[in-house]
Amino acid sequence: MIATTSAVSSRELTLRALLTGLLLGALLAPSNVYSGLKIGWSFNMSIIALLIGFAFWQGIAVAFGRPRWSLLESNINQTTASSCASIISGGLVAPIPAYTLLTGQQLDSLPLMAWVFSVSFLGVWVAWYLRPSLIVESGLRFPEGMATLATLQQIYSHGAEAGRRLWVLGGAAVLAAGSKLVDTFFWTLPRWAPSAQLERLTFSFEPSLLLLGFGGIIGLRVGLSLLLGAVLAWGLIAPWLLAEGLARLPAAAQGPQFAALIEWLLWPGVSLMVCATLTSLGL
Q: Rg for the chain (alpha carbons), in Å?
């Protein structure tokens, strides 16, 4: 009996763990594509896959007497699911949509698959090369990885903790889906702006729970940095571009004029991001 229990607890790269991660990754990847196109940011999806896989297989184990879903299997599941959901880093929310917008053409399925596979393979190789310096030697604590580890430890050390987290996950899912359905089909939620001029400069309230959840994930420090960048770009630089005649808006234009102004604001923003990233990586 002791040997059997030990064998079950040491199960890691099992078929069910791999297939569960692949299935959840396939379901979560479109969500990541949508959020990436909507707000320019994708998510790790590890914790969601971790909780869903745990709830399903622990329920199967209790109901039918199957082997329990081990901690190591949960780790394989969340790793596989997050890897699948992160496939959008192969260009599905940046260069490929930009190519379509510029040319009006869409890549065929085979070239698109080849592109995503090639970029993903290159990313894995670079990550493998940087792992010793960033993780083994420097001991960097990546926030998403630490959050996933904490969740993994809590749900296996305190069974009630997993239940509470699943209730929160399910409640948030119902709230988000319900508000989106109401806004789309029944009653349009109000969009408020201080004035018509500020609305043209994109200063308007967007009642999106996607953005609310995103703010909760990134934290106050990063959120304030984003707010500062928005105020500088759209509150100072954009009005100066319009006053100097470098950017022009149609006289009858109403609502946020993002596309006309981002053509100018893109360049300093990208330069700051790239230079800051390369400097941090070099240090």
A: 23
User: pLDDT at residue 6 above 50?
Assistant: no
The per-residue pLDDT for 5 is 41
Task: Identify the burial level of 261 via C-beta atoms within 10 angstroms of its C-beta, where 0-12 means exposed, 13-18 middle and 19 or more buried.
Answer: buried
Q: How many residues does the chain have?
A: 283
Angle between helix 71-85 and helix 143-157 axes, rounded to 10 deg: 150
**How many whole angstroms separate alpha carbon 47 and alpha carbon 34?**
19
Name residue 230's amino acid. A
So where are the chain's domains? 2-157, 196-282
pLDDT, tens only, 204-255: 888 888 888 888 877 888 889 989 999 999 999 999 988 888 888 887 778 8
Burial of 123 (0-12, 13-18, 19+ CB in 10 A): middle
Q: What is the dihedral of CA 188, 189, 194, 200, to 10 degrees?
A: -50
Quick count: other Cβ atoms within 10 Å of Cβ 203?
16
What's the half-sphere exposure (Cβ side, CA atoms, 13 Å) at 31?
18
Task: Pick the closest to residue 77 from 32, 12, 127 (CA basis).
Answer: 12
Helix, strand, or coil (residue 11): coil
Instruction: Please give the backbone phi and psi of residue 50, each rounded to the nearest 5 degrees, phi first.
Output: -60, -45
Could you tell me the pLDDT band of residue 23, with boundaries at 50, 70 and 90? very high
